[in-house]
């Protein structure tokens, strides 16, 4: 890559006196654009063109496809129980030659220490992409699976509207994931890695849109984390039969989340996601078995169930002390609170797909981002 070359165009080959005179008058001097290597660019450099992002992205995708073709195919056991070493990435270049070259360098010179080769730059990006397709499956399933709000949503909206809501938003999440996958493949590369929504927004629309997207996503994460802490705090409160302070219950989950947040890469987080998926499935099966053979918990329902959101008439005790029979509705159930109960249930259903905001982060750590489209429909 040159530092700027000044060239003089030679028109003497055609032997025309007029062209030679014009060349002598004007000089025909033109400056070739200064070319910078990717590692010499700023983190968000406005001088990098969109075509440059796409060029390096095409090179990275071709390398990933060639590397995937040389690997053995994964079996069912590898998918269900991903190996701890499955995320080790093969780096380019010879380690022996690299170490010998380092010994030959004069590292006392600050300019030499600050120099980053293209191999070092791309290998650093490859080393961060450690998640396999199996790991991505568990991460998406853990992030998207929201079974705990399904009962409340169906109870306040009815079977028809509830199933329609989950189906429509599931399709919307799939289409959104496909569009993100398409954009990511065309602008992410080892030379210019895209790590979040802000990077995609910056490369397509500019700096102002990156700030807007980062602010909105940060606000959504704050609200989501707060909601999770409050919900899980309520769960501990019910398990302890309200003998433990509610603030302490929320603090327990906040500290647990802080401890889990120390995991730096998604590949290291896979083992926890595996257990989360199996625990969720176990809880759902146990809940279905208990609900089918037990009476409703009217005390808990009166505290904040679907019946309470609809006004409480369906869970209020009768004159003889008994409770009304369980009723299900194919359409919107009658409500004494107007549309408030149905609106709260709708928000519960939509929240089940809130994890789609992490799709870009998942693709950013995949060894082969193309696999995301194979994993997402299964989830």
TrEMBL record:
<feature type="transmembrane region" description="Helical">
    <location>
        <begin position="242"/>
        <end position="260"/>
    </location>
</feature>
<feature type="transmembrane region" description="Helical">
    <location>
        <begin position="338"/>
        <end position="360"/>
    </location>
</feature>
<comment type="similarity">
    <text>Belongs to the amino acid/polyamine transporter 2 family.</text>
</comment>
<keyword id="KW-0812">Transmembrane</keyword>
<feature type="transmembrane region" description="Helical">
    <location>
        <begin position="163"/>
        <end position="181"/>
    </location>
</feature>
<dbReference type="InterPro" id="IPR013057">
    <property type="entry name" value="AA_transpt_TM"/>
</dbReference>
<feature type="transmembrane region" description="Helical">
    <location>
        <begin position="272"/>
        <end position="293"/>
    </location>
</feature>
<dbReference type="GO" id="GO:0015179">
    <property type="term" value="F:L-amino acid transmembrane transporter activity"/>
</dbReference>
<keyword id="KW-0472">Membrane</keyword>
<feature type="compositionally biased region" description="Polar residues">
    <location>
        <begin position="12"/>
        <end position="21"/>
    </location>
</feature>
<keyword id="KW-1133">Transmembrane helix</keyword>
<feature type="compositionally biased region" description="Basic and acidic residues">
    <location>
        <begin position="1"/>
        <end position="11"/>
    </location>
</feature>
<dbReference type="GO" id="GO:0016020">
    <property type="term" value="C:membrane"/>
</dbReference>
<protein>
    <submittedName>
        <fullName>Putative amino acid</fullName>
    </submittedName>
</protein>
<feature type="domain" description="Amino acid transporter transmembrane">
    <location>
        <begin position="132"/>
        <end position="376"/>
    </location>
</feature>
<feature type="transmembrane region" description="Helical">
    <location>
        <begin position="208"/>
        <end position="230"/>
    </location>
</feature>
<dbReference type="Pfam" id="PF01490">
    <property type="entry name" value="Aa_trans"/>
</dbReference>
<feature type="region of interest" description="Disordered">
    <location>
        <begin position="1"/>
        <end position="27"/>
    </location>
</feature>
